[in-house]
From TrEMBL:
SUPFAM superfamilies named among the record's database cross-references: (Trans)glycosidases (SSF51445), Cellulose-binding domain (SSF57180), Glycosyl hydrolase domain (SSF51011)
Protein name: Alpha-galactosidase
Residue ranges of domain CBM1 in the record: 17-53
Annotated GO CC locations: extracellular region
Keywords assigned: Disulfide bond, Glycoprotein, Glycosidase, Hydrolase, Secreted, Signal
Region (Disordered): 59-82
EC primary class: hydrolase
One Pfam family matching this protein: Melibiase_2
Amino acid sequence: MIAKTLVALSLASVALSQSGPYGQCGGQGWTGPTTCESGWTCTYSNPYYSQCLPGSNTTPTSSTTTTGGGSSTGVPGSAPTVPPSTAVGKLPALGWNSWNAYRGDINEAKILAAANQFISLGLKTVGYQYVNIDDCWAKMGRDTNTKRIVPDPNKFPNGISGLATQIHALGLKIGIYSDAGTATCAGFPGSLGFESVDAATWGEWGIDYLKYDNCNVPGNWSDTGSPPGGDWYNSNSAIRYRQMTAALAAQSRPIQYAICNWGNANVWDWGGRVGHSWRMSGDSSATWSYITSIINTNLAHISSTKFGAHNDMDMMEIGNGNLTIQEQRSHFAAWVFLKSPILLGTDLSKLTTAQLAIIKNTELLAFHQDATVGTPAAPFKAYSTAPTTSPPEYYSGASSKGTHVFIINTSSSSATKQFTLSSVPGLGTSGNFKLHDMWTGADVSGTYAASASFSVSVAAHDTAAYLITKA
Ligand SMILES: *[C@@H]1O[C@H](CO)[C@@H](O)[C@H](O)[C@H]1NC(C)=O
Ligand SMILES: *[C@@H]1O[C@H](CO)[C@@H](O)[C@H](O)[C@H]1NC(C)=O
Ligand SMILES: *[C@@H]1O[C@H](CO)[C@@H](O)[C@H](O)[C@H]1NC(C)=O
């Protein structure tokens, strides 16, 4: 029923002033639409998130907070402290997720088509690995005897395990989705209180990756004020996610663990102790304003990203909406140089040659997946009188190949960008250098002294990318 509703609605045009199916429609800091399109109701989930859910007769309600801080029940003391698996998740994930492309309108054919496109489009060859199913894969109720979540047989006639077998046969990995609440954002069974049975089910099916969402959290799990000891690792939010870490660790196969609590409860302070990546905000949109704002959000917590622990700027919008090709290049480059997970979020069969060239750029992917340097690129002052912009425009970082500079033109017309080589952290103040354009794969002609200035014209909202080595 849900699937049919979604099909019908996805064909309808969505008024920009209203949120679409399952879209966000409220919450602290939310500046987008607060109403939903016809047939959907803006439903309170928690102080940070209200969402358009099916139906027109549910009244938005607010939860009552009965306990705060997590100390009253003594849960923190007994909550598991198991760290995330070190067998997976050292590098930021590279793959695809069904949500941005299809929302809840998913089935085995669509997921398998994406997996096959990893092969036919050459995405697997350049490192894309995870084929991830988002919300709406399950039946509404758990199995009454086993308490397991049951795949929707209409969408997944071979079950998730049958799909996993096919995806593994392609040499790829499969991801699943659940929620650290009583129900997922779309209302399917959540895993709070069922962590062990669900992790065991996924382990048995051959699941390699879990995205764990944050809808429908019971009021007694909310955080009020500072957590015990001032460490948000002991917050009720973190404990909900820690329970799943322990359940995943009990399985025989390693499962990469993507925390999706939208940047709540200072997740950047504890995400690396609980999972391999953590979302930093609400859902992405295919807009330049989303891209620039999530760059700023990431920069505020850039020191949290390292091997095994990654700020997650959310799934990719390349192929969706009206981003210019320059904006799509900046979108990819920023996720690369800040080492966010990169999960493609579109119908891969519709990607143009230019879009494929962006997401298959092996030099940018090599920076993202560098096995010897785990730190992201960071802003630097390009020359003594360089203006301050938001987000910053100049970034540098190291890889096993040398030093890299990334330059975003944040304004809406093309501009000449420049930097003094000695201003780039790590290059030093003497010697000569050569530059290599990571987008074109070509060397820049000539050499540059440390005291020299390099300049380049950057199109509006585009990002230039260079590797700099000693000449
Ligand atoms: C919330 O209530 C449930 C059900 O009584 C209980 O299992 C859980 O431990 C409570 N959570 C907290 C943080 O108190
Ligand atoms: C893209 O642009 C078209 C034409 O201006 C507009 O109708 C449409 O709503 C835009 N789509 C998005 C997702 O912004
Ligand atoms: C490109 O970005 C820079 C920095 O924001 C801006 O100053 C410049 O105006 C943009 N392009 C041009 C020529 O305006």
